[in-house]
Amino acid sequence: MSAKDKKYLFRKPIYFAGIAAIVLIFISFAANSLFVLFKSSFFSAIYSAVVFCASIIFLYGFYVIGDKYKSKLLKVLPIIGIVGIIVFSLGGVVFGPSLNSYFVGLNQTLADYNDTISSLNQSANISSTAIDQLSTEISNKIVEDVFPLLATFAVCFFIFVIYAILWGVALIKLNDKIKYVKVTGVLTVVGACTLIVGVGLFAFLVAFIFMIVILFDQSKKFEKF
What we know:
By secondary structure, the chain is mainly alpha-helical.
């Protein structure tokens, strides 16, 4: 990217945040097809880099909007989001190989347990009570192995829900200043509260589309073309 392009990007952060949001929606829907077509670690790295950059540009656009309207919450949340993305990405680079080994080992353990149970079921020298007891022991062992991962996921999920609710509240507070911002904020809050039952995904998608509309609308208001 040339110095002129960088200057243009920083002069119109809200506009490029809208572009970044469109990119995020496209690659989210096309992810499965893209990974089927391009099965390589190089493509995975490119994909991750695009998501990383687009997410930061998207969040920074709302930081600028928060600054324009003196909304402290809408300024703080994008900063927290950007820091979170950086930390998460660095964590993926550092702990990615270990996590991959963990899943490989877990899959192998499950396969070994299934083979053991199948062999015992076919054996005539062991009682059904003994098989049930062994199955219970194996199940408990699997729970012990999986629990740290589930606990980590639960914590991350809870943090994301709280973050999304605060984001929605920050948007709702700008109700009298930005078009469509209230419905966007309400949809974001609803999406966060209902995410665990699946309904929230649709609400988030609609809210995200409204965010794109807001970004381009605010770009026309504040940025000269």
